[in-house]
Every structure is written in C-alpha cells, then in structure tokens.
Amino acid sequence: EDPTAMPGHAAPSHGRGSSASGAPVHPRAPSPAAEPAVVAAPVAPAEPAAHLDPLDRERQLLEGAEGLLERDPEAALARVAEHARAFPDGQMAAEREYCAVRALARLGRTAEASQRAERLRSRHPDSPFAPLVRRYLTPTP
Questions:
Q1: Do residues 104 and 71 make contact, with C-beta atoms less than 8 angstroms apart?
Q2: Among the listed residues 77, 63, 141, 70, the one whose alpha carbon sits nearest the alpha carbon of residue 112
Q3: Does pLDDT of 121 surpass 60?
Q4: Per-residue pLDDT at 37
Q5: Which of 16, 59, 70, 130 sits 20 to 30 Å CA-CA off 89?
Q6: H-run or E-run covering 11
Q7: How does DSSP assign 108-136, residue by residue?
Q8: Phi then psi for 17, rounded to 5 degrees?
Q9: Residue 105 contacts by C-beta under 8 Å, 6 or more apart in sequence?
Q10: Sign for the pseudo-dihedral over CA of 43, 49, 53, 54
Q11: Cα 57 to chain center, whole Å?
Q12: Predicted confidence band at 138 (pLDDT cuts at 50, 70, 90)?
C-alpha cells in the first residue's frame, strides 16, 4: 500500500498496468458530453484607434498627414482624403484643407492647390489657416 495515496483512491501506477483480464489500462479521457463546448464568437477586425473620441481620431489622421507631407505628399493627400471621408464636416476641416493645399503645391499641382486654398478661405474665413493659404492662390488677371 502506498502511504502517499489518498484514502479511497487507488495508488498511482508507475508505467503501464494491466487489468485482471490482461488488457492494458489507460486513463479515461473525459467524455465530450462532460465538458461544455466553447465556441468563440466571430470578432470583426478593430479599426485602428477606434477607441478614440472623434476629435482625437481627427487629430490622429491629420498628424499622420502632416508627418508625410515633406517626404511623401501623395501619401499625405491620401490621409487627407481619408479624413474628408470620415469627417466631412469635422472640427479640423480647415486644418485638413491647409494640409491638402500644401501637399498639392509640393506635388506641383498648383491649379488644384489654388482651388483648395480659395475653398478654405471661403468656407473658413475666420480660421487661422485662411491667411496662410494666400500665397498658394493664383492671382486673377
């Protein structure tokens, strides 16, 4: 008798044992019905920064655009477009347009830059960005 065995339980077997009939003894696997099946619910992929409030999300998009402006103005325009889709009337719409004007100018797309500069001035006349875009406007004859 094994002194470490708990009362009412058989002593642990070391190695393979055999039953009285000589058949090998294997520990019983739990019955599939004994344990409830756990099925994970499908999870939609999380949108980056989806947990942020709208203004923080706007700021994040525009900071990304600003960071790309010098080295990749085309990518900056893509971020600006993403902002415009997500926040067409966002609180940072004037900043978005200012970034777009500068990206277009860096790409040599001066006519488009001028149009967007004029649009910024007409839609956001009191914005601190309105006077900054004056230099991108094409003079009218």
A1: no
A2: 77
A3: yes
A4: 46
A5: 70
A6: none
A7: T-HHHHHHHHHHHHHH-TTSTTTGGGGGG
A8: -105, 180
A9: 113, 136
A10: negative
A11: 10
A12: confident
